[in-house]
Amino acid sequence: MKVLLLKDYVYLGKAGEIVNVKDGYARNYLIPQKIATPLSPGLQKQLDNLKKSIEIRNQKLKEKSLKLKEKIDSKRFTIKVVAGKDGKLYQALTKEKIAEILSKELNETFDKHWIEIDKPIKATGIYNITLNLPGFIKTNIELELIS
């Protein structure tokens, strides 16, 4: 019997996958435990439509990310910060702050989760920062902090 997994199940697969199991196992365990549901023609059609809409959404997201990457690649970002004599910042530059600055500079919404830095920036200088844009698009920006 073919069933659609509603939850991740170690022995069968992840939620959303269609698996083939023995009829008794499905009727007596998987379905009553709400781990899976029987696959009907209507459910199969719904899944196909859902997959198509997800593919279309992902394609649009990737195109938007590529346009954003083009904008980013042609710029060098210079930020004026308040720093002490030795170049240490009074307030560390975090992912949130960088996302806010990039949003203002590019006139685009920018998510802090796209920015990849190990720890907050605490000194002036030039930093290479990796961005993981939606749609598995990676790019680097050059961020210069001056006081």
Helix content: 25-40%
Strand order of the largest sheet: 4-9-8-6
CATH fold call of the largest domain: Ribosomal Protein L9, domain 2
User: Which CATH class of the largest domain is shown?
Assistant: Alpha Beta
Structural domain tally:
2
Mean pLDDT, nearest integer?
A: 88
CA gyration radius, whole angstroms: 24 Å
Shape: elongated
Derived from helix and strand composition plus strand pairing, the structural class reads alpha+beta
Helix count from the secondary structure assignment: 3
Q: Would you list the SSEs in sequence order as H and E?
A: EEHEHEEHEEEE
Q: In the CATH hierarchy, what is the superfamily of the largest domain?
A: Ribosomal protein L9, C-terminal domain
Low-pLDDT stretches are none
CATH architectural type of the largest domain? Roll
Which key terms come to mind for this protein?
alpha+beta, Ribosomal Protein L9, domain 1, Ribosomal Protein L9, domain 2, four-stranded mixed sheet
Description:
- With 147 residues, the chain is of the alpha+beta class.
- It folds into two domains: 57 residues, Ribosomal protein L9, N-terminal domain (Ribosomal Protein L9, domain 1), CATH 3.40.5.10; 86 residues, Ribosomal protein L9, C-terminal domain (Ribosomal Protein L9, domain 2), CATH 3.10.430.100.
- Helices cover 36% and strands 30% of the residues.
- A four-stranded mixed beta sheet has the order 4-9-8-6. A three-stranded antiparallel beta sheet has the order 2-1-3, with no helix packed on it.
- A hairpin with a 3-residue loop joins strand 8 and strand 9.
- It is elongated, with a radius of gyration of 24 Å.
- The termini are far apart.
